[in-house]
């Protein structure tokens, strides 16, 4: 690791450089390439044994393990001091592979249900303009109550139903007004932020495929079970498709 850099707009994002050896990333990508005929979820997303095994492999790296432990401790402290509650941790591992046929999964502004999000880029799409980069909004919300959180999610769910070109126009407008910032991710680095209070989304992909391992820690429990229902539905869909 060559060090940590505080992210744009203060402390929205922390970047840890050169944490994951490129040899490990090559191994993970080769694993994906060798199993793609077995799964291809419509949203490019898979909560699976593969994602869990990838995370386990990364944790064999002492540097990654130390960083994850450090940011988890900070998230736990944040939960106790800001949310005023104890939040148990059951990590959620997600592998996401998105290509040109996944416009429906682009420009979907959202907050995570978890406090801590760790992004591990595995592969970038080659188009420099529209390559699936992460977009983070500059203004973080305050930690909300369950009711306020559900109202926000309801509005964003409505927004997700808007046509692709409208979502893209809205995202472009926010970038031009500096209401959001594009984060150029690179394999080898890891990116850490509080997804519960930071609105974020991704650009679309026009060529190739963007691959990301996402590790979520500390479900804040502000969804009144809605997140669990969505997750269970996705897992059931994948099982029926023979992808788990």
What features would you describe in this structure?
By secondary structure, the protein is α+β, with helices and mostly antiparallel strands. It has a single domain, classed as Jelly Rolls (Sandwich), CATH 2.60.120. 36% of the residues lie in helices and 22% in strands. The chain is built from six helices and ten strands; from the N terminus they run ββαβααβββααββββα. The strands form two sheets. A seven-stranded antiparallel β-sheet has the order 1-2-8-5-10-4-3. A three-stranded antiparallel β-sheet has the order 7-6-9, covered by helices on one side. Strand 1 and strand 2 form a beta hairpin. It starts with a strand and ends with a helix. The mean pLDDT is 84.
Write the layout of secondary structure elements.
Elements: E1 3-6, E2 14-17, H1 22-35, E3 45-46, H2 49-58, H3 62-83, E4 92-98, E5 114-123, E6 134-137, H4 146-160, H5 164-176, E7 180-183, E8 190-194, E9 200-202, E10 210-219, H6 226-240
Brief account:
With 244 residues, the protein is α+β, with helices and mostly antiparallel strands. The chain has helices spanning 22-35, 49-58, 62-83, 146-160, 164-176, 226-240, and strands at residues 3-6, 14-17, 45-46, 92-98, 114-123, 134-137, 180-183, 190-194, 200-202, 210-219.
What brief labels describe this structure?
244 residues; alpha+beta; Jelly Rolls; 3-stranded antiparallel beta sheet; 10 strands
- CATH 4th-level superfamily: q2cbj1_9rhob like domain
Largest sheet: number of strands, sense, barrel closure: 7 strands, antiparallel
Residue runs with pLDDT of under 50 for 5 or more positions: none
**What sort of overall outline do the alpha carbons produce when their principal axes are compared?**
globular
> Radius of gyration in whole Å, from Cα?
17 Å
């Amino acid at each position: 690791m060559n060090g940590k850099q505080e992210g744009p707009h203060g402390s929205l994002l922390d970047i840890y450089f050169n944490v994951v050896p490129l040899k490990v990333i090559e191994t993970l990508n080769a694993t994906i390439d060798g199993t793609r005929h077995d799964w291809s979820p419509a949203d490019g997303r898979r909560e699976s044994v593969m994602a869990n095994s990838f995370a386990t492999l990364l944790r064999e790296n002492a540097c990654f393990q130390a960083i994850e432990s450090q940011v988890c401790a900070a998230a736990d402290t944040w939960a106790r001091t800001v949310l005023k509650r104890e939040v148990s941790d059951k990590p959620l591992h997600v592998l996401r592979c998105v290509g040109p046929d996944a416009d429906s999964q682009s420009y979907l502004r959202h907050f995570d249900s978890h406090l801590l999000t760790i992004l591990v880029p595995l592969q970038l799409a080659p188009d420099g303009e529209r390559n699936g980069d992460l977009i983070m909004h500059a203004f973080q919300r305050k930690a909300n109550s369950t009711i306020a959180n559900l109202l926000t999610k309801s509005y964003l769910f409505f927004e997700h139903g808007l046509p692709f070109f409208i979502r893209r126009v809205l995202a472009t407008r926010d970038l031009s007004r500096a209401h959001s910032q594009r984060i150029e991710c690179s394999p080898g680095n890891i990116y850490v932020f509080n997804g519960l209070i930071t609105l974020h989304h991704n650009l679309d992909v026009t060529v190739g495929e963007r691959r990301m391992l996402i590790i979520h820690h500390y479900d804040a429990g502000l969804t009144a079970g809605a997140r669990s229902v969505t997750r269970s539905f996705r897992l059931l869909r994948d099982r029926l498709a023979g992808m788990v």
